[in-house]
Amino acid sequence: MNDVKVKRVVEAALMAADVALSVDRLMLLFEPDAEKPSRLQVKNAITALQEECEGKGVELRRIASGWRYQTRPDVQPWVARLWQEKPPRYSRALLETLSLIVYRQPITRGEIEEVRGVSVSSSIIKTLLEREWVRVVGHKEVPGRPALYGSTRQFLDYFNLKSLDELPTLAELKDLDLSHPELDLPNPQEGEKPPLQIVAESGELVDTGKTRH
Amino acid sequence: MNDVKVKRVVEAALMAADVALSVDRLMLLFEPDAEKPSRLQVKNAITALQEECEGKGVELRRIASGWRYQTRPDVQPWVARLWQEKPPRYSRALLETLSLIVYRQPITRGEIEEVRGVSVSSSIIKTLLEREWVRVVGHKEVPGRPALYGSTRQFLDYFNLKSLDELPTLAELKDLDLSHPELDLPNPQEGEKPPLQIVAESGELVDTGKTRH
Amino acid sequence: MAKTDPSPQNRLQAELPFAVVKGEPMTVPPEDLYIPPDALEIFLDAFEGPLDLLLYLIKRQNLDILALPILRITQQYMEYIELMKEVRLELAAEYLVMAAMLAEIKSRLLLPQPVCEEDEEDPRLDLIRRLQEYERFKKTSEQIDELPRMHRDTFEVSAMQSACKEERPRPNVDLKDLLCAFHEVIQRAQMFASHLIQREHLSVRERMSRILGVLNVEDFVEFQRLFDVEEGRGGVVVTFLALLELLRNHAVELVQSKPFAPIYVKPAVKGPVEDGYS
Fold it and tell me: Considering only alpha carbons, which residue of chain B is nearest residue A72?
């Protein structure tokens, strides 16, 4: 078989295979042929193909188990977008924990658990710390010295807030939430939307206050 | 993004993807970038890459759902040796059913049976649906509301076609003219000559083969 | 569209050799249509139905479909049906329908022809149409089978991706979802809550965090440094309230060496630390 054909076969095989191919394996492709190429021919083909990849988006690389075509690292960020999955979602438990840390900071894990009525898993706290949305701001001087959590600059940045004051108060939240009208406290402005300035300047929230010690 | 880089990204993406990629899909790879290439740049990159395949063991082909790198048919015997199993063979019954669905879509199972003169087994329809070569495109408004079948993009992709127009033209019907001389051949057992006055209206049966809807 | 007149040339065509075997021109088709019964199973599988079988019979006699010699075809067809009935009756049913149709055509052809009714259709016409129609799709399906097909004639290229630190997308959170979560958890808490209602300033709690943050870094901070005059009276009050709250919570301690000396704020005396992950 002539060099040109050998090169074309080797190229097509390396490109179509889902695994790296060794020279031995490539030689096997020609096994049943009367006119088999030599090992040197196959090796030369690989070298030539490698050179042809100069400047291209893929390269022919030697790895432990043989040769394979792979995308070059500098174009990989774009190629990876082919498989980009939708980002996963955080659990309800995580969002509740985060919201309690934000609204009730500094707060201990025990206090969060008390409000939520269930224990807070370590993985939730870990995820929030890794995301740098919360941090340990100190320790409460009670037996065990539990960590006190607070929100971070990164948290504000992510949600595009200048400060926590921009968050609505619990009372305002109730107004927003139409699904639980029966829980509304009597509100003289019922039916009206609260003026925007009040949202900004009050920065307060009404809560049951039962969780402090 | 400059042309060289666009071409490298497009090349790597097309080579890494296991499905054909449309220009739209390729454009999406650049979506989050500040400096997105134009559609024309991407199209030019494809054309350039196509030219670069000249004489190689692989080619960049346009099929129904987009562009795909694939091995050239002339190196197939060697490349096929990479895999143990033989490609599946399809029965005549399946291929006839498939071609009726493709050329006569939308078509019901009953209509297929009418042309083929035999019943179509459920397993054939099931195989075609599973392979996603055909799909139910609707129901015929006759008693029983039988399913109407049509072909899919996957069918075109599998058979290396850009569109249905690339399918072989359905053989034309011969003119149904029974005054054909061969009929007059004396047949000792055939007591009488059939009446030969009938001239079929050819327009009714001669079909260009493109019964698309 | 060949509307041919019965010309001598056309007659001649039928006499031309249809094949040349070992140099010998053959004008008579071989009479090898008989298939032994034990081969019938295979034989049946080879045909896609009565139309396919009819086409086969016609081809074997090297005849044009249009020149359908009903009698000969019917006779041969019936022979197969007889064989078939014994082996696979359910399949033979479809073939039997065809046999009945052939017999009907034959009988109509045998009937004397009334001269006046010129419009009557040749009884073979419908069958011929069906045969032609079937043949078109038979041929086309063969052509489709020959189209270059994935995994038989061609294979898709699949380059590996270069190893590259994969950035797993992190969940996005909508502020509204966060607020909803808070609303709900508070509502849930209210079901267990005592009646004591207390107003709290969010900004005070934020300031508490900030003060603790400063103390985390510096450990020992002058009281005054925690106040930012530029924040105005409100800011000063908030900071002061935050400090008082922290003191109440035993989170900080205030230290003053003597009256009127600078006051220092430091984290409360450290006991055993809980890491928060217990």
Answer: B12
Please list the helix, strand and coil fractions of chain A in percent, rounded to the nearest 5, in that order: 45, 15, 40
Instruction: Lay out the sheet containing C221-222: strands in order across.
Output: C221-222, C263-267, C252-256
Q: Which helix (H) or strand (E) holds B158?
A: helix B153-158
**Res B29: pLDDT:** 92
The alpha carbon torsion through A37, A43, A46, A52 (nearest 10 deg) reads: -100
Within a 10 A sphere around the Cβ of C17, how many other Cβ atoms?
A: 11
Sheet holding B134-139, edge to edge: B107-108, B147-151, B134-139
Give residues with Cβ within 8 angstroms of C139, minimum separation 6.
Answer: B171
Question: Which residues 207-266 in chain C show a CB within 8 A of chain B?
Answer: none
B81 and chain A in contact, CB less than 8 A: yes
- Distance from the C36 Cα atom to the nearest Cα atom in chain B, whole angstroms: 23
pLDDT by residue (tens digit) across C63-73?
A: 777 777 788 88
Q: Dihedral of CA B116/B121/B123/B126: which sign?
A: positive
Residues C127-168 have pLDDT tens digits of 888 888 999 999 999 999 999 888 888 888 888 877 655 556
The residues near A179 (Cβ < 8 Å, ≥ 6 apart) are: none
What is chain A's mean pLDDT, rounded? 80
Q: Is the pLDDT of residue A135 over 90?
A: yes
Pull the structure tokens for residue C11: 């007659």
Name the residue among A59, A141, C263 with its Cα closest to residue B11: A59
- State the complex-level ipTM: 0.62
| Shortest CA distance from B27: residue in chain A | A78
SS3 B22: coil
Cα C259 from Cα C263, distance rounded (Å): 9
CA-wise closest residue to C251 among C207, C210, C208, C191: C208
The dihedrals phi and psi of C88, each to the nearest 5 degrees, come to -135, 90
**Nearest-CA neighbor of C148 among B167, A17, B78?**
B167
